[in-house]
Each structure stands twice: as C-alpha cells, then as structure tokens.
Design a protein that fits this description.
The protein contains 4 helices and no strands. With 121 residues, it is mostly helical.
C-alpha cells in the first residue's frame, strides 16, 4: 500500500530545512527529485521511484494520472529549489517554490483520498 503520509512528511522535512537555510542565509545541500539520476536524491524521490513508479500500471487510471502529476510537481519543486541561493535568496523564486510545494501537498492529499478502498498494490 502507498503510504502517502510518508511522502508528505519527507517533503515537509525537506522544505523546513530549506526554509531554515533561507532564513539564516546558510548553506543548503539541494537534492534531486530522482527522476533522471539515482545520486543525491531526496528521501521522497528515492522511495517514490523504488516503490510507486515501477508499479504504476497496477493502479487504476485516475490514480495513475494523479501519481504522474505528483511526479511532475515534485521534480518541478526541486528544479525551482535548486535555483535558490540560500545565502542571497530571490523572493520571487522562494514564492514560486512555496506555491509549487502547496500544489504538491494538494496532489498528495488527493492521492490519499483516492487510495482509500483500493486494494494493496
């Protein structure tokens, strides 16, 4: 079964560390979403590409569509985040990252609702 709460928690931990680095103007070790590389991946991406994507065809079509949207937005979040210089952050990029993060949360909540009642995959 897909533990959507795990993905929410991992994203929350990542974004909290990034926000803390921005607020303190400190260093931040940006991670990859894990789509194109298996190195320097965030915990969300490592688990997503190990447990969900290989089994994508096992899900009903509406759930597959949401999973693919989650994948897309998750990677967009990382691409935006990597552009942020935490020592001199661009406020427009920070806002875009926050908006993308909110979209990711919304998609994860939708996925969680959709998975209720679906047999273990």
């Amino acid at each position: 079964m897909v533990d959507v709460r795990f993905y929410m928690a991992q994203h929350e931990l990542y974004i909290k560390r990034l926000k803390r680095a921005i607020e303190s103007r400190g260093d931040f070790a940006h991670k990859e979403c894990c789509r194109d590389t298996k190195e320097n991946c965030c915990a969300f991406g490592q688990t997503f590409y190990r447990d969900i994507m290989p089994n994508l065809e096992d899900f009903p079509e509406p759930i597959r569509e949401v999973i693919l949207q989650v994948e897309k937005v998750h990677c967009e979040f990382h691409e935006i985040g990597k552009q942020i210089d935490t020592e001199n952050p661009d406020e427009a990029l920070v806002k875009e990252m926050q908006d993308t993060s909110l979209t990711l949360y919304q998609l994860l909540m939708r996925l969680e609702r959709m998975l209720i009642g679906v047999k273990k995959v």
